[in-house]
Amino acid sequence: MRQNLIDITYSPYSHKFYEGAIDKEGVDFARDYAYKPLAKYNPDLKEGDGQLEPIDYETFRQAERDFKSGAIDATSLGNITVIDLLREVIKREWREFNAIEATRRVPVPKLQLNVPIAAKYTASEKVPELVAADQKSNDFTQAQLRLFKNVVDIYESDESRMKGTIEPLNFEIDQAAGALGLAANGQIALEIETATTAGKADWGTVNGTHGRSDRNPLDDILAEFTVINGLHHRPNVITMHPRVAGDYLTNTFINGQMPPGNMEPFGVFELPKFPGLKAVVDQSFTNTAATLLDTKVMLLGEGPTVAEQFRDPHRGADGWVIRQWMHPLLATSDGAREMTTVSA
Prior knowledge:
Blueprint: E1 3-11, E2 16-19, E3 36-41, E4 52-54, H1 57-69, H2 75-92, E5 104-107, E6 112-118, E7 140-146, E8 148-157, H3 158-163, H4 168-192, E9 196-199, H5 217-230, E10 237-240, H6 242-250, H7 252-255, E11 267-270, E12 278-281, E13 290-293, E14 298-312, E15 317-330, E16 336-340
């Protein structure tokens, strides 16, 4: 039997923590409707420098009074504890994953949102005197963000806390953040790779006669760059698996006969030999392909993250269920091209 103790919700739309879970009708974080805001999270600030700013000061004052009086199980102190837990999960989630760097992050105030995507048109050039220009009008399509949730369940027995040489809850927070990050990272990578495909050839193949690469990756990238440009989008990111990045960085058309020096085929960096194009390299991408895209069309709908604390007295354990709502969506195929078979 579970006894629910504390429910806290974080919304990336308002950057606020709220008391309660997603269990009420008409929830709208754009208007703070149906929930009591407790604190504002400022991710650009450091901890201790205003990163967590109280909104409901009485909750924090009551927690302090309860702590001083020894009433450490008070609801107000529990609120602060779960806020800290949730903040740590949010802070640590993307430390080891990079796919989010290839998205346009869209905070969603509810669990669904329609984002208008305008079809591009060209200007009338060099219009002669007294000649009317062609009349243009926007044609919109609706990108429908319908958020789904990823869930982790943290469960800590009383014995684990008493016998552990490390603080088990801190370890579990790290695990929860990693699990949520891994799930979301894979979902983003999978959506990016729904782009229109274009068959290429292996960037890593070396000619056995003269020892130089057979294929120039820049030719492949420029060809797809031109296609996307012709559809009025501006590619600014290329996503790759580390094996593909390794083939690119060691290709002699890119690096000559010299080894690639200190460059590591993982992370986020400007693509060598292609100024202005950001490489996003992550294990979740397919190890034989590279995707060129305009991040304006790769949306990541970000909804609330909820932590619910409970106590299981029969098993002697405390637990936290963490639910995170999101939806990665490639809004139009015009803004992305997946180059296949570029590594083998």
